[in-house]
Amino acid sequence: MTLTGAGVTSGTTVLVEVFQAVLASVGVTGEGAERLLDQVMAEYRKGEGDCTLRFGSHAGEIEIALARGGREFHASCPLPVR
Fold this sequence. Notes:
Blueprint: E1 2-4, H1 6-9, H2 12-25, H3 30-46, E2 51-58, E3 61-68, E4 71-78
Antiparallel strand pairs: 1-2, 2-3, 3-4
């Protein structure tokens, strides 16, 4: 899933809501989700302009990529076993 555009750059509400919804939908909640959100938002604040937030999964992990203002940030987290 990729989120790009004005809804992402005009404010952080959409970014936070989508981020939390995606993580919750794959079972990543609690402190782990909060830490990832804190990391992503810290990187978001370092850049300016358009923002792209991308989610993917591979080999039992959720992968998160944030690009903004020429900067890129990547993080991953193991997916819980269901």
